[in-house]
Structures are given as structure tokens and as C-alpha cells.
Write a structure and sequence with these properties.
248 residues, Rossmann fold, 2 domains, seven-stranded mixed beta sheet
Length: 248
């Protein structure tokens, strides 16, 4: 089990080390820099919007995240950005944003059908008439979870300079489109390894489109990798989707 202090504070401290800036961040940064008002759903430690502000973005930047410890770091990183504690069930905006993004596979944390429908309706309400919603999921055909094994251990350095070992293990068998897995963290600051348990949903493009259409969102474009290559259902590692409100 993971105690609250570990899950909230320590994981926030490890987040950037576990997820170094990469091609996906560059992809989203380009979109943010080209938009006036931006909402980052699941903003985490605020890295994307903080980088946008540092790069000269002068419009409205808003990040929302349900983890208070993440937002503590976001506020330190970029005090000039609007940081909101909450999620798509607890916040509401109406027609205010030119761009809404969900990065870091946050979209896959919307596991239940109704949870997903509510989230998409909230996103649609937040979009300006010609605004865009951009998010990514892992293509289920690529079966990324097969690489989440204890043998692929990683080592990262925490805020105290201690080395923390991290590995993941998938609970078998994997059935349907939901994958449940554990993350184990072992460092010198704990008497025993800390274990978190998570479930992600792996929806294919056709299923995604049904949910999007049901929420009044229409697919404008889709990529299969961060280089913006075409999406190939059988082989692309990512499903990167760009949508607009229907009817415009």
C-alpha cells in the first residue's frame, strides 16, 4: 500500500525525473504557442505551461489537476499561470479556450464510459466555437503494456539527491481495453518499497471516435507518432487526435 505522504508529495517530486521533456512535449508546446487561451487538463507539475510562458506566451494559460502536491510545484514554476485544483467533474468553463490539451496519457485515466462522456462534454463546453482539443492515447495494437515489466527497472534522483528505483508490473490476464498495473518505488528513505496501483484504458481509434461524436466533437486530424506521421491502426505507437466542436 502507498501512504498519502508518499503518493501525493513524493510522487510529485519524482514526476519530472520520471517523465523527462521529450518529443511529445515539443509537439504540445508548438500548439500552445500558437493559441491565445489554453487549458491544460491534468497539468501535473506545470511543465508545459511554464515552458510556454518562459518562451514568450502572453495569453491566458490555465492548468487544472486533482493533485494538490503537483500544483504546489506548478505554482512555484510559473506563478503567472492560473492553476486550478480539480478535474473535469468539478470545474466548468464555457467557450473560453482556443486550445484544450490532455498530455502525458492523462486521457487514458478516464476509465469508465460515463466518466469519459462527462469529461468530453466538459471539454466541449470549455472550447471557443473554433477551438481545438488535442490529446494522445497509446495505440492498443502496439501493446505497450507488454514492456511494463520488473526487468525494465529505472533509477531516478529525488529532491533529496537519493536514487529511487522504479519498476512496473502488469496484472494478468489483460482482458478488454483496461490494463491494471502496479508501480513499485524503492529508495533509501523508506523502510519498505512503496507500491501504487493504477488502471488505464486503451481505446482504439474507432471507439474513440464514437465517444467524441457522442459528445459533439468531430475529429479534424490524427497522427500516429510525435513526428506527425499518419496514423496506421495496426502499427502506430500513438493515437494523437485533434478535434473541434461539431457544427462549426
Amino acid at each position: 500500500m502507498v501512504d498519502r505522504a508518499f503518493s501525493d508529495v513524493t510522487l510529485a517530486g519524482l514526476y519530472d525525473a520520471l517523465h523527462p521533456w521529450g518529443p511529445g512535449d515539443e509537439f504540445y508546446l508548438g500548439l500552445v504557442m500558437g493559441a491565445g487561451a489554453v487549458l491544460d487538463v491534468g497539468c501535473g507539475t506545470g511543465r508545459l505551461l511554464g515552458r510556454a510562458r518562459e518562451s514568450g506566451h502572453r495569453g491566458r494559460l490555465t492548468g487544472v489537476d486533482p493533485a494538490a502536491a503537483m500544483l504546489v510545484r506548478a505554482r512555484r514554476r510559473a506563478p503567472g499561470v492560473e492553476w486550478v485544483l480539480g478535474d473535469l467533474d468539478s470545474v466548468r468553463w464555457r467557450g473560453e479556450f482556443d486550445l484544450v490539451v490532455m498530455t502525458g496519457y492523462a486521457f487514458q485515466e478516464l476509465v469508465g464510459d460515463e466518466e469519459l462522456r462527462r469529461a468530453l462534454r466538459t471539454v466541449r463546453q470549455a472550447l471557443a466555437p473554433h477551438g481545438r482539443f488535442v490529446f494522445e492515447t497509446r495505440n492498443p495494437a502496439a501493446r505497450a503494456w507488454e514492456g511494463w515489466t520488473a526487468e525494465r527497472e529505472r533509477a531516478v534522483t529525488d529532491d533529496n539527491g537519493d536514487v529511487v528505483r522504479v519498476w512496473h508490473e502488469v496484472e494478468s490476464p489483460v482482458t478488454g481495453d483496461r490494463v491494471t498495473f502496479t508501480g513499485t518505488f524503492d529508495g533509501p528513505g523508506w523502510r519498505r518499497p512503496q507500491v501504487s496501483r493504477s488502471t488505464l484504458r486503451f481505446l482504439g481509434a474507432e471507439a474513440l471516435d464514437r465517444f467524441l461524436g457522442g459528445a459533439g466533437l468531430a475529429v479534424q486530424g490524427r497522427f500516429g507518432d510525435w513526428g506527425q506521421g499518419p496514423f496506421a491502426p495496426a502499427s502506430s505507437p500513438e493515437i494523437i487526435t485533434v478535434v473541434r466542436r461539431s457544427g462549426f
